[in-house]
Hints:
By secondary structure, the protein is an alpha+beta fold. About 25% of the residues lie in helices and about 25% in strands. The N and C termini lie far apart (about 80 Å).
Amino acid sequence: MNTIVKTAALLIAALSSTGCYKATFVAEPEAAKREPTHEEWNHHYVFGTVGEAEIDAQRYCSGEVAAVRTGGNAGTTTLGIVTLGIYTPRKVYVTCSDSPRLTARSEVK
């Protein structure tokens, strides 16, 4: 019984020392209310400290990019726990604007 209590306490301490990370970049405030246009996984390792990803959000939108958000979900969290933090993926969510993309020609009037 004593071993079970110690193991449970250690597990609770380990899980409570982990945190969540989320970053959001918004060009249009109303974009936060819409569903993302595109979702993509980024691969990181060793509790997210190893690995980096560069995302070109423009390639997913025919118009302007309204918002970009990075974070996790149940799937990425589960993978991080199952692999004991060795593999810790993140998700990138891109929301496109309803307005068309400006071109050099349309900007000059």
